[in-house]
Amino acid sequence: MSARTAEAASATRSEVASPAAVLLVTNGYAEDHMGAAVAAALRRREPACEVRAVPLVGRGDALRAAGVAVVGGEPILPSGGFIREGLGVLWRDVCHGLLRQVWRQGRTIADCRRPGQVAVALGDFAALLLARRARAERLVFVPTAKSVRSHRFYQVELWAMRRWCDRVNPRDEETDARLRQVGVASAFLGNLLMDCLPAGHPVPPPPPGAVRLALLPGSREEGVGNLGLILEVLCELAPQMQARGLMADFRAALPGSLDASRAAAELGARGWFVGEQQPTGWVARRNGCHVVAHYGSFVEVVGSSTLAFGLAGGANEQAAGLGIPVVTMVGAGPQSTCRRMAEQQRLLLGATLLLEGSPGEKAGMILVLLQDEGRRAQMAAAGRRAMGPPGAVEALAAELLGR
């Protein structure tokens, strides 16, 4: 090939690489936030680029709030998207219309075809399968749900990534190395979650001498029940801290998706008095223990905490990435099963501590960690290493635009 021909071919590829439209297929609450951040970065770089999204789990509220054109949106099924938690979970979803929902979503994505479009699947293999229905010019996969630290990729997943994907952007360097080793066109750009840290209303610093714990119950339906479980442990922890001369400052960082009235009813049934609810949060009290809840102030609450107590997915990972050690336990739904929490511990390279036993025993484990500064420093370093610095969203947007 002559130099002129090669130059012309390169120019043609560059023109094709700059898309007229980007379709985001997201498969979860955290993925919705990632998609919203990617859409914002694309609009900053190329205002003429049309960005749309098809959320596979829920209505895509985070995408809508960011001004992304959302196509479709379905009710959340009992599993919350975690159908691999067992045949029983899968069967409940089937009984609630899983197969019809997947068929509708496939049709919706097929109807979103555009000339020169790039499709981006954010989530698991199901997102990739459905995103392929768009028959896009390019197909990019961001497998947020798997890492070689905690899962193995099935052969069918590797085959699909090799055959279908123009690019795969995994969540960590180890997974990137493994995918490239087996012939996948993989490139590690960073972890998108570290560019999706929600900031909100200011939160006062901890009182002098106080130890702040950030409470992260999760964003899904189970978050309400999990908040109640966390507070049961805090009722045991507060007097134990007081006996050791430690002042407790408990702050919950709640997502907007967690229903305030349901949370108040759940806590009321557990003997808590919930004060007047404001748009920014509320205060709950029980037997001398009190918790201040904040909506949308994740960075402000977590960043000022000594420890995070989380039964969440993405929020736990973000807290670890900020260098905050995380304690967790088995919760009330599919996102906080024993298996999920153990997987997260491996994923975050030991930045989390899985609590066991009765509420009093769990509180004792937290107290031991609060008094072990060296252990907390090790967990903080592990979390930062596991999640990496921000910057992945801008890098992905540049890649999608062919720059």
Question: Could you give the topology of this structure?
Answer:
Layout lengths: L2 H15 L3 E6 L2 H17 L4 E6 L5 H5 L3 E2 L16 H9 L2 H13 L6 E6 L2 H7 L6 E5 L12 H10 L2 E2 L4 H9 L28 E7 L6 H21 L3 E8 L5 H10 L3 E2 L6 E6 L2 E7 L2 H6 L3 E4 L3 H8 L4 E3 L9 H10 L4 E3 L4 H12 L2 H15 L4 H9 L3
Parallel strand pairs: 1-2, 1-4, 2-3, 4-5, 5-6, 7-8, 7-12, 8-11, 12-13, 13-14
Antiparallel strand pairs: 9-10, 10-11
Helix pairs in contact: 2-16, 9-10, 9-14, 12-15
Give a written overview of the molecule.
With 403 residues, this protein is α/β, with parallel strands linked by helices. It has 2 domains: 190 residues, Glycogen Phosphorylase B (Rossmann fold, 3-Layer(aba) Sandwich), CATH 3.40.50.2000; 178 residues, Glycogen Phosphorylase B (Rossmann fold). Helix content is 44%, strand content 17%. The chain is built from 16 helices and 14 strands. The strands form 2 sheets. The protein has an 8-stranded mixed beta sheet with strand order 9-10-11-8-7-12-13-14, sandwiched between helices. The chain has a 6-stranded parallel beta sheet with strand order 3-2-1-4-5-6, with helices on both faces. Strand 7, helix 9 and strand 8 form a beta-alpha-beta unit. The relative contact order is 0.13. The N terminus is likely disordered.
